[in-house]
């Protein structure tokens, strides 16, 4: 994968969405924090980001907190190297209630078909005053619209494999938790600090020309049409 920003100090983008998201996550954690990385997968970023110490250290929470557990419905989570422990979800998250201070849902909300049981599990395992940190495509962004139109087709599979070589299993997208209004409705007993962030383009097929073209489009488009929804939810 090409690095567009290899010639600037740090070799990372001034507009890196992952850096922005995890810097915000880090404002809620300390040495005594118990974290659940929900829908964590196998953590492909763990190996790829080792090439850049700055990027890696921002996302790698394990050395700076009490404990981090990864949980996913996919058994591939057992290969995740970024955590203290990994769990497979069957019907429920296999932990006791009030186990965590913070839950990360990074690119998870878009894949939730039934929001109510999902909320119930989060609410069960999160402590009072705990935080849910979510990052997800905004429902009315061009990526979500295209994804919805192509859902279940071979074209979508082809595009994803070309745009993100080596990616693991793909999960269907539903976009039922992808606006501030729906998040507030589902997490009714949480304070909701959500906003739209416009990061660098995610899908540019390893082409510098396409990247710069898409970057310009991001600049020109309304924020909602090219943005990602960040949600920081505090359990009351």
């Amino acid at each position: 994968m090409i690095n567009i920003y290899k010639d600037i100090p740090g070799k990372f983008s001034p507009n890196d969405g992952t850096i922005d998201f995890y810097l915000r996550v880090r404002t809620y954690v300390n040495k005594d924090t118990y974290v659940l990385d929900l829908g964590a997968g196998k953590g492909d970023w763990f190996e790829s980001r080792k090439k850049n110490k700055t990027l890696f250290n921002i996302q790698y929470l394990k050395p700076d907190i009490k404990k981090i557990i990864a949980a996913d419905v996919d058994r591939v989570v057992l290969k995740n190297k970024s955590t203290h422990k990994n769990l497979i979800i069957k019907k429920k998250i296999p932990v006791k209630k009030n186990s965590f201070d913070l839950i990360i849902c990074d690119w998870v909300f878009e894949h939730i078909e039934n929001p109510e049981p999902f909320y119930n599990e989060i609410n069960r395992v999160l402590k009072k005053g705990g935080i849910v940190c979510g990052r997800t495509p905004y429902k009315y962004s061009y990526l979500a619209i295209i994804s919805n139109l192509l859902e279940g087709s071979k074209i979508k599979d082809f595009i994803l494999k070309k745009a993100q070589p080596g990616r693991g299993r793909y999960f269907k997208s539903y976009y039922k938790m992808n606006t501030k209004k729906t998040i507030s409705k589902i997490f009714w007993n949480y304070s909701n600090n959500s906003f739209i962030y416009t990061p660098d383009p995610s899908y540019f097929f390893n082409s510098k020309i396409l990247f710069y073209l898409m970057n310009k489009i991001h600049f020109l488009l309304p924020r909602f049409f090219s943005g990602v929804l960040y949600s920081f939810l505090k359990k009351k």
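The radius of gyration is 17 Å. The chain has one domain: 9-235.
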